[in-house]
Amino acid sequence: MNRAAHHVRANALVLVWLVAAAVAALAHRWLPEAGWLLVHLPLLGAITTAILVWSQHFADTLLRSPAPRRALTWRLAAHTAGVLAVVAGHLTSVPALVVAGGVAVAGIGVAQAVGIVRQGRGALPSRFGHLARAYVAAGLLLVPGVACGVVMATAAPGPEAYARWYVAHVVLTLIGFVGVTVAGTLVVLWPTVLRTRIDAAAETAARRSLVLLVAGTLLAALGPATGLRAVTVAGVAVVLAGIALTAHVLVRQARTAPPVTYAALGVGAAVVWWAASVAVLGVVVATAGSWAATVPRLSALTPATVGGFAAQVLVGALSSLLPVVLGGGPAVTRTVAAELDRSAVVRAVLLNGALVIFVLPAPSLVRVVASSTALAVGVWFLVLVARAVRLARQPGTIDRPAPVVPARAAAVDPVAVALARSRRRGAGALAVGALVVVTAVALAGDPTAAGLTQVLAAGAAAAPATSDAGATGRTTTVRVEAQDMRFVPDTVEVPAGDRLVIEVVNTDTTVHDLVLDGGATSGRLAPGGTASVDVGVVQQDLAGWCSVAGHRLMGMTLDVVVVGGQPAPPVAAAPGGDAGTGHDMAGTHHGTAGDGTRAADLLDLVAAPDDAFVARDATLPPVGDGTTHHVTLAVTETVQEVAPGVTRTAWTFGGTAPGPVLHGRLGDTFVVTLVNDGSLGHSIDFHAGALAPDDVMRTIEPGETLTYTFRATRSGIWMYHCSTMPMSLHIANGMFGAVVIDPPGLPEVDHEYVLVQSELYLGEQGGTADEAALTAQQPTLLTFNGYANQYRDRPLAVRAGERVRVWVLDAGPNRPSSFHVVGGQFDTVYREGDWTLRDGGSTGTGGAQVLALAPAEGGFVELTFPEAGTYPFVTHAMGDAERGAQGRFRVTD
Question: Given CA atoms 651, 655, 661, 662 in this order, what sign does their dihedral have?
Fold first, then answer.
């Protein structure tokens, strides 16, 4: 096999991993462990494979002693098998596969390092031979990095221990293995893409930089090992010094030979992302209150590190090196290079601009559009590679001029250089304009989350409290801050007849607005946002409030008191609620708006759903293999049917209300990624884990993510729910679910079901909960698993004589449960972590008729049905059962 064919096959493997990553990105909503895959397919698959290929290529060049190609071929095969084993083992929760794959990957890193050392011993003296030491050091750093990852995936450490392994894994693999490799390669690669020479200063800087990068990486990894975060911060500072040395040389060389190709633009931008990622890692570790607190905060580094640094430096390097290794002569090389350089400026600006938008605080839809733009640029590169390979293999490929003229050619043709620069500026402006347009479209698609819904009501009919009659001609301007779920001040005085202007400043950490009687509003304000509300001429007292769901319920109100005027007339009560609660005077619902029809008016508790209705599967899901369970819960706002013809907008974990049931055993670790795709701030609280709530239970804004890791140390059925205030509203809107941790020695049964009882406080059809009814604790419906009477109309099927276990959780938020099976008797009752009755109790003949639970309590009952028939189950608070909390077991012979 000739050199070109060898490189085509080797790099084809890199491209396969990149394609797999692109497919995973497109299908991530339907993939298990999508977040883990989107990190490890490009890094462990594409990037590590590329490092094996190109570090060997550069070692051959630097040492002037080519290694046998067969050795690299075997290493690539073993590495690919190892990565596939790690991926398969992680997805299927088989620790043995993860361990085997990790050993293979680490072993290949050592084999590559040893091979390059041997290669250097037999090589002739070379000016740049010492640069190959970077590849040796990087290969050795990979070993402990992989070991940390394997421990996280298989040993199920507790949250604090998991976080220390996590930080060490990131430091050793990304800063160490990837960073040291890139630093060693840039000494030669950067002058190559700029078409300039390597000077003596660059070599000296490379030596010093390598020492700093390796030493800093080891010091930073020592921090988690010793438990001292300050040690990691010090190590990161040393690494940044090494990066600064490298960057100084790159900038100096770029001044004499400006970057004009995509390879140069991409590699240059990657170095910026590299430095920024390392700096942010140091800041996060320094400012976090504990090791566990670093894990969710480091999630923001993922797009910057994977897309901005690692993937971009790979694409830039391939754009420069592929034309050379494909061969075919100077004409073919220039043609292939021109193909890979198509729209260089546009691609570079789109990719990096999209990444910047993604990592900044932004509404969810904007972040989706930004990530889609970056993904499109990545796919664009794959298409160009396919075209370039085809051109290289076509006979008679003609020479084509390069798309740009380097700046150093000005002495030859300054006019051509000026034209080329003008075109690049135009292309850059075009790309920036495209980013602005797509961002604006995304903002228009989600104006509420973006804080762009500023609307001023006008007219006497819409604002009866303001009138120009008796106007003084003066203007009173006041500043009101939204902070800690309060308006400060919460009372504003204005002389009668003055025009009132309220400057609203959101100094809180979540979205707020100000709505006043008559409809004047600030619109939604993101944290740090400001707005000026022109209320008009004020003649009588006005009421104001924050209309974000639940905030008024929390007491976020404002009183405008007119001095020398008249008191405000009483505000008409909204249908089914307190005065003004649930609606403002302009008819705007506080939360997700419905269609104006009260859902309760459509309710028919006798009606059965149509034939297409499918009840929620009440079967307890299996635990699955492995002891670490990775779960992604996306917060969404979804219109759901809760009774025949009756809908509400639910705030959901994972698209369902209740959220998915999680099932594990004692000692299992749950790594939960919370993704806020809603329009409000949300959080999550797992009763199944015991850990400080300060960080993991914090509220995250739309577009943000959070990683919550807990270890199941006690058995039972545990509630999880949103803990953002007002908690009652978030739970009532559907943000809750169950975690089942089996007690030791729990015997098998024929059927195992989970029923989660909850209350629904219906407002408008298709809208969110009625806050007035919630405050009064007057639910419209009570349900098992989120739909009234669903198991009455779709009974749970069992056979006579089969043993049935029913797990029951009362999610509330307010009412107790008294679970009872009509015609059945429980011989076993397990409540809140212990048996209150087991196998008939001490006499062997004891029984129980109900499982009594307060809100957030849970347990299970066991029974056997003696004969065929229909056995209803209810909460024996009969008024609640008659409002939907009932179902049936259909028992057959």
Answer: negative
Q: How far apart are CA 37 and CA 142, in angstroms?
A: 19
| Distant-in-sequence, close-in-space partners of 887: CB < 8 Å, separation ≥ 6 | 755, 784, 789, 790, 791, 792, 795, 796, 872, 873, 874
Instruction: Judge whether 803 and 864 are in contact, CB under 8 Å.
Output: yes
Beta pairing partners, 560: 492, 542
∠ Cα 783 788 791 (to 5°): 95
User: 478: buried, middle or exposed (CB in 10 Å: 19+, 13-18, 0-12)?
Assistant: middle
DSSP 129: G
Q: For 478-506, what is each residue's pLDDT tens digit?
A: 999 998 888 999 898 888 888 889 999 99
**Which pTM does this prediction carry?**
0.60
804 three-class SS: strand
What distance in Å separates the CA atoms of residue 821 and residue 791, rounded to the nearest whole number?
13
Burial track 261-285 (b if 16+ CB lie within 10 A, e otherwise): bbbbbbbbbbbebbbbbbebbbebb
**Ramachandran class of 699: left when φ > 0, alpha when ψ lies in -120 to 50, beta otherwise:** beta
DSSP 619: B
Q: Shortest CA distance to 516 belongs to which of 570, 438, 586?
A: 586
Q: Report phi then psi at 495, rounded to 5.
A: -60, 140
Is the separation of the CB atoms in 665 and 714 below 8 Å? no
Instruction: Indicate whether 12 pLDDT > 50.
Output: yes
3-state secondary structure of 678: coil
Write down the mean pLDDT value for the chain.
Answer: 82
Q: What are phi and psi of 91, to 5 degrees?
A: -70, -30
pLDDT average, residue stretch 337-354: 86
